[in-house]
Design brief:
- By secondary structure, this protein is α+β, with helices and mostly antiparallel strands.
- The longest helix is centred in the first third of the chain and has 19 residues.
- The termini are far apart.
Amino acid sequence: MKTLILIIYCCSAFIFMQDELKGDIQIKVTDLPSSKGKVMLAVYNSKENFEQTGIFYKNAELEIVKRTASFTFKDLPYGEYAIKLYHDENSNRLLDTGLFGIPTEGYAFSNNASGFMGPATYNASKFKLDKKRVTQTSSVK
């Protein structure tokens, strides 16, 4: 009987610990040039996926209110993440670009990271989810 109680206790503790190792990532987007369109947001959980197009861990399409937007991804495993987002002002679901591929719509990265002659790197954008809630505020460029 003692063995059975010990097994139940250990299993309960393991399940409880698993729940404790999850948290929320709250994203706040500021400085949007207008309230038209939507914010397209992608969360990445690896450098390899961050550097490839279209391979994200989670994504969301955000409504814009008074030139700001926010969203919370709930119950994500603790770990390392990075965010890319853009303001899809004309609602065509694409980051529009002009000459030489330079974006004509606003964009941002986690940590407000920026790149030189290109997008921000994963190392500049990454952050840790290691508590119940982490907030990332990104200002659109």
